[in-house]
Amino acid sequence: MKTVALVTQKGGSGKSTLAVHLAVSARRQGAVAAIIDLDPQASARLWAQRRAKDDLAVVAARPAELPRLLVEARQQGATLVLVDTAGHADVSADAAIQSADFVLIPCRPTLYDLGASAATVDMVRRAGGKKAAFVLNGVPPTGSRADEARQALADILPIAPVEIHSRVAYSDALNDGRSVEELEPHGKAAMEIQALYNWLTKV
Ligand SMILES: Nc1ncnc2c1ncn2[C@@H]1O[C@H](COP(=O)(O)OP(=O)(O)O)[C@@H](O)[C@H]1O
Ligand SMILES: [Mg+2]
């Protein structure tokens, strides 16, 4: 079982969006995927309630419950657990980082997001030897923002080779409890999410 924490201090960076999309992608490729939602706002849990299928376990929990829930997930045969966290609660971010095999830090290519990621990187460093990477999310379809962000982040942590662009499909899919792969299976968003998931299976 692989545990991937989605962490960053900045709200709106795409933690919940990527958590649910990666979970669906994993499921579609045969993994047994679950999401543990540590954010009191419970975006992932609410998405699951809007979802017509119950092919994914999505559990809202407090940070202190995380170790026990991960043991249970393993016992129940989960192969991938995504841990979604709150934008600012250090407790949930810390718990998620401690329990994770891999920490994914979504970051929009804006100065504000790049700056906010420093606090998250500090938390990852304090956890000692955790595997982690940034993933650029909400990248404009044109322009050089992604390249500039890559340069700014390059010496800090690895950056996922796959960029997630800003596309209405992501918010449309979330609104009705689906993923872009279910909304537009051959669309550009579906392709990039599959590519991100495939990369994640190899790190
Ligand atoms: N790549 C994207 N393209 C378009 N909208 C996005 C994208 N990523 C996130 N969003 C939208 O941005 C908002 C914030 O994303 P969310 O995943 O909730 O962030 P976080 O969980 O980090 O606070 C949501 O409304 C979501 O639909
Ligand atoms: Mg969220």
Short description:
47% of the residues lie in helices and 18% in strands. It has 203 residues and is an alpha/beta fold.
How does this model look, in words?
This protein is an alpha/beta fold and 203 residues long. It has a single domain (2-202), classed as Rossmann fold (3-Layer(aba) Sandwich). Helices cover 47% and strands 18% of the residues. It contains nine helices and seven strands. It has helices spanning 15-28, 43-50, 66-75, 90-99, 111-127, 145-153, 168-175, 180-183, 188-202; strands at 2-6, 33-37, 57-60, 80-84, 102-107, 131-139, 164-165. The chain has a seven-stranded parallel sheet with strand order 3-2-4-1-5-6-7, with helices on both faces. α1 (15-28) packs across α9 and α4 packs across α5 (111-127). The longest helix is centred in the middle third of the chain and has 17 residues, at 111-127. It is globular and about 45 Å long. Bound molecules: adenosine-5'-diphosphate (ADP) and magnesium ion.
